[in-house]
Design a protein that fits this description.
Helix Hairpins, two-stranded antiparallel sheet, mainly alpha, 11% strand
Length: 195
Amino acid sequence: MAKIKLTKNELKTQRDSMARFQRYLPTLQLKKQQLQMEMRRLDQEILEKRDEEQEARARLSSWIQLYSEPIDLAPYADVQTLETSIGNIAGVNIPILDHLVFKEATPNLFETDPWTDEGIRVLKQLTRLRMERQILEEQHRLLGEELRTTTQRVNLFEKVKIPEAKENIRVIRIFMGDQQTAAVARSKIAKGKSA
């Protein structure tokens, strides 16, 4: 604990500091709660996206053997544009997926197998799900960092700054009370000597 001055000015400074900490603490606690709720919501959404991906892959497994010959479907499922915007949750800027457009490439119907269209559709679906999940994971990461910082600040105020200010106020009051008692005693002694 830092050395404090035992003066009226320091007492006022400590009282002001404690009032400021107590005024900001509820705001930080609300921000922490909001971030925790958003993190839980994002956890649920990420799990849902992973489940959707697994379901799509499970549906794919029944007919994937048709692709025993190597075929490159990637050119038909290339992402042309990925548009994101910036959202704000509890003061944190997060990316939000607005629009995902795939390049328009149609396979040659005479040179490809009939099941190529379904393969392209599933590949686009898996790509979309992966992009959505990655955006959600980035949101989760950003909110997690902010939650960690906010939790540190709440703990700092609750466990360090407010108790420290209370203790400083108590010490200064005791010292000032002792000084006042000593001044009264000195004045009585001085009055007794003069009389």
